[in-house]
Design brief:
This protein has 5 helices and 7 strands; from the N terminus they run E-H-H-H-E-E-E-H-E-H-E-E. It is α+β, with helices and mostly antiparallel strands. It has a domain at about 10-120: Aminopeptidase, CATH 3.40.630.30. Helix 1 (about 15-30) packs antiparallel against helix 2. The two termini are about 30 Å apart.
């Protein structure tokens, strides 16, 4: 589906953390409710997406925190990534609001991430095995599976897949 609106990708600002938190809460419910109880999702998002935590991440030098916005400045999606050496970049989160998925916004965010780390030769990330939409997206973008591991969050055991994308040098 083609983009019907003008979408821009820009660095996140600290004064946007409340809107970012709202996008994260909405996308987490959509992404994880099929395999995680809603009360656990609310508990995790309350802990992991505190405004002060998001603000600190935005202000961290080696972190790229980007927002995809429409022409009305509404946040449609976001990505955060970090690199210690600018060669290997770890994507910490990539979320697009459900009603805006499958329109190229995730790809725009990944492309902006790659551009933000011009010396990078590899992108890495983790995705839950039960996150069917996320897995399909990453595979379509060329990510390959490296390993699987078990992870327990709030007494729920999940299978997490480590993935990587080799970038041209």
């Amino acid at each position: 589906m083609a983009l019907t609106k003008m979408i821009t990708v820009q660095p996140a600002r600290v004064d946007e953390v409340l809107q970012i938190k709202q996008v994260l809460s909405s996308t987490w419910i959509d992404t994880y409710r099929a395999f995680m109880p809603i009360d656990v999702i609310h508990k995790i998002t309350a802990l992991w997406h505190k405004p002060e935590t998001l603000a600190a991440e935005i202000e961290t030098e080696n972190v790229y925190f980007a927002l995809a916005k429409d022409e009305n400045n509404a946040i449609l999606g976001l990505l955060s990534a970090a690199s210690r050496d600018n060669e290997i970049v770890t994507v910490g989160r990539l979320y697009v609001l459900p009603r805006h998925q499958r329109r190229g916004i995730g790809a725009m965010l990944l492309d902006a991430c790659i551009a933000a780390f011009p010396g990078a030769h590899q992108l890495r990330l983790e995705v839950e095995a039960e996150n069917v939409k996320g897995l399909a997206f990453y595979r379509k973008r060329g990510f390959k599976e490296l390993a699987r591991k078990q992870e327990t969050i709030e007494d729920i055991t999940l299978t997490t897949i480590d993935m990587e994308l080799q970038l041209p040098r």
